[in-house]
Every structure is written in C-alpha cells, then in structure tokens.
Write a structure and sequence with these properties.
There is one protein chain. The chain is mostly helical and about 190 residues long. Helix content is about 60%, strand content about 0%. The protein contains 6 helices and 2 strands.
Length: about 190
Amino acid sequence: MLPEMLRVAVSIGAGRIKPSTILRRLATYSRKSKLYFAFRELGHAVRTGFLLNFLSDIELRRLIQAATKKSERFNQFLQWVAFGGGALAAEGIRDEQRKFIKYNHLVGNLLIFHNVVTMSKALERLQAEGYALDPDLVARFSPYATGHLNRFGRYDLNKDRVPEPLDSIRAFRMPPRGERNPQSAQVAV
C-alpha cells in the first residue's frame, strides 16, 4: 500500500493531479478502496502526532491560541461592522450572501486601514514629542477599535477634500532597540 500512497503523493507534488481529484476518486470508492483506508489511517496518525505535540509544547499552544484569538477578534469586528448584525446574510440566495460577505469584508478592511493610519500618526506624534514607546505595549494595539466609529449616525461628506497621498502614509515602526532612549518615560496610549 505504501508504494501507491507514495505514487499519489509524488503525483500531487509534481502537479500532475489535483488533491481534490484524488479525494473525489477515493471518496467514490471509499468502502472498497484500500488506498482510501490507508490514507485515512495515515491522517489519524498525523493528527495524533500533532495532538501529542500540542499537549507537550506550551509555546505551540500559546502560538495557536494567539492566532485563534486574532481570528476571532477579526470575525467579531466584521460582525460589528455588518449592518443589522449580519442578519441580512441569512437570506437564502447564495449569490446575495456572497456579495454581503465580500462587501462586509471590504468595509471592515477600510475601517482597519483607517484605524492603522490614525494609530500610526498618533504614535509618530508621541515619538516626535520625545516620548519613549514601549514596544510590548505597541505590539498589543488592535486595529479593531470601534469606539470612535459611528455606524448609524449622520455623515457630512466633503467631496472637495483631497485625501492624503498613500505614499505619505506609512505604518508606524518602532526604532531598533539600540536607538531607543531607555531614560525616557514610557507612554501608554
């Protein structure tokens, strides 16, 4: 069975066949295919190995938990952004649901961009005023802030206002550790 499994893996790696094609073929004959059962058992072994690694490695658990929290926070932000709390996506028309999700992601990403630009400018101002910024504190900032956003208010749009050019907007960067002044007070923003 191992030679067949290797042949499938090499074919996928070489790009001769798509993984989805193999999965479809194996699923069709799953009750009879020894190759299907072999791959299923290999999957169980890989999963068991990962779980043992996960249980024994505290850094891996922290990394996975941090990534999960970021993903959950992004989804909460998108849910907050969605008009009606996402109830419009409950409509039964698949194309309309896809449009709603795409438009919601677009608006969410625009708001994240706005938040990052605003935070970067504020941090640059603080640094220019001579404040030393704690990199650990800055690293904990989130672009998912919502307190300053007005979802359902009235907006006065100035169509004559020319936006700042993108090349003048740069993400805030902490200076290298050697260039920081350790004597300065640390600021919590």
